[in-house]
Design brief:
CATH topology of the largest domain: Immunoglobulin-like
Cofactor: Cu cation
CATH architecture of the largest domain: Sandwich
Number of helices: 3
InterPro entries: CcO_II, CcO_II-like_C, CcO_II_C, Copper_CuA, Cupredoxin, Cyt_c_oxidase_su2, Cyt_c_oxidase_su2_TM_dom, Cyt_c_oxidase_su2_TM_sf
Mean pLDDT: 90
Order of helices and strands: HHEEEEEEEEEEH
Membrane topology: Multi-pass membrane protein
Helix content: 25-40%
Strand content: 25-35%
Low-confidence stretches: none
Organism: Myotis petax
Distance between the termini: 30 Å
Number of domains: 2
Strand order of the largest sheet: 3-2-1-5-8
GO molecular function, one term: cytochrome-c oxidase activity
Structural class: alpha+beta
Radius of gyration: 24 Å
Oligomer: single chain
CATH class of the largest domain: Mainly Beta
Number of strands: 10
Shape: elongated
């Protein structure tokens, strides 16, 4: 869950988000080193006299500043491609949830159960209970088992939406007439909040997502009570 004036990412709750945070730090360090080097060169050229002007025409220098950027791009591209392939993998999901975007609420169907489906609307500010979050709380949370691979099938009934939960590293477009899929794996129980991340109309800001990750035995009790 994000907090006011937060500068970094939310705490990672899935292996994919941990990989994304690691890649972010990796790329940021490269950018920091490049920026420091450029700043040093600029400051040295402005404050010192060039005693070896012939160095600027040397073949060795041209070779270095041609090859070095290529090496840096490879150092960024290889980890990025690895994470992209990891995000597309579907590894024997234990549960499948179909998510349907509407203007302006979400519908969820537990396809492994009969008649287990519901709509999820944002709770109006006037109806919030103490401790609930404004613009983020819903009347029906998506209850899922923790530490299990879950497949999310995401589509839309009207316009473009985007189903996003930052702490899990998830952001998948909901497109009318197309079924997108992604995997979800939470490493610990808890409440995880997200929102629609595609401008979809006047009430775009009022489409929150709340995932309640619980142990498997509690999920089985919940699913039995909902049927």
């Amino acid at each position: 869950m994000a907090y006011p004036f937060q500068l970094g990412f939310q705490d990672a709750t899935s292996p994919i988000m941990e990989e994304l945070l690691s890649f972010h730090d990796h790329a940021l360090m490269i950018v920091f080193l490049i920026s420091s080097l450029v700043l040093y060169i600029i400051s040295s050229m402005l404050t010192t006299n060039l005693t070896h002007t012939s160095t600027m025409d040397a073949q060795e220098v041209e070779t270095i500043w041609t090859i070095l950027p290529a090496i840096i791009l490879i150092m960024i591209a290889l980890p990025s491609l690895r994470i992209l392939y990891m995000m597309d993998e579907i590894n024997n999901p234990s549960l499948t949830i179909k998510t349907l975007g509407h203007q302006w609420y979400w519908s969820y169907e537990y396809t492994d159960y009969e008649d287990l489906m519901f709509d999820s609307y944002m709770v109006p500010t006037s109806e919030l209970s103490p401790g609930q979050l404004r613009l983020l709380e819903v009347d029906n949370r998506v209850v899922l088992p923790a530490e299990m691979t879950i497949r999310m099938l995401i589509t839309s009934e009207d316009v473009l939406h985007s189903w996003a939960v930052p702490s899990l590293g998830l952001k998948t477009d909901a497109i009318p007439g197309r079924l997108n899929q992604t995997t979800l794996l939470a490493t610990r129980p808890g409440l995880y909040y997200g929102q629609c991340s595609e401008i979809c109309g006047s009430n775009h800001s009022f489409m929150p997502i709340v995932l309640e990750m619980i142990p498997l035995k509690h999920f089985e009790k919940w699913s039995s009570s909902m049927l």
